[in-house]
Amino acid sequence: MSGLLEGKVAIVTGGAKGLGYGISRRMAGEGASLLITGRDGAATEKVAKEIREEFGTKAVGMSADMAVKEQVEAMVQRAVDEFGGLDTLVTNASSLSDNVLLEHKTDEMLDATLKMGVWGTWWAMRAALPHMKKRGGGSVINFYSIDADTGAWLHSDYNINKMGILGLTRSAAVEWGRFNIRVNAIAPTGLGQVFARLVEEVPGFLEKATANNPLKRAGDPEKDIGPVVVFLASEMSAFITGEMINVDGGQNLPGYVSIPHNLEELEKGAT
Known about the structure:
Strand order of the largest sheet: 3-2-1-4-5-6-7
Shape: globular
Strand content: 5-15%
Number of strands: 7
Radius of gyration: 18 Å
Largest sheet: 7 strands, parallel
Structural class: alpha/beta
């Protein structure tokens, strides 16, 4: 570790599990003071304690639901109150609805997905803006997905959500550059919560999932995804904004086939 984030204050949403956990650890290892949030408050506090003890950096855990505006705004204020300001916002938290076909998705599913994603990101960014302006700039790192590019089966609401976040990312990059606030997105493919569970539960899933990945492996949250977040949060990326970076071992090049094996059952409405 080289202290790339020494003196920086960051929020990592969904930062106690999956990809967020690895990102939190990597940022802490580079010296960032962290507010780690998620709906599981006990998990965020546990990870914050782990980080304080292992890295000797400041870290606080907090329960916050990105689908609730008041909690998102309170999250940003908590970071400022704890650490004196805010430099980086990492909007990793997201959710998936039931794996059903587009014609079986409900309005409630789409609404819940957009609340956690587009709306949560919108609220967090707008709450962070005045504090980043006071610091003379900042970095927002949003999360996109290869699913949206490939139109992944059974994820129609999620795909809509991710496309919206990408549009928000580019709009903010254009408008907030005047404040020296950089806004970028990454599309990671790694051993997040859902991916890791499938690897554990489904024999041969890892081999099948990485078969057409040029690097032939799944990304490690801390070793593969975390460094790219650190780069975008650090001054090394001071002249980069409005970009979407694939962090997926080249998976975006061939894409992937997501047609479900149980399509006939799904067409009948089974979940």
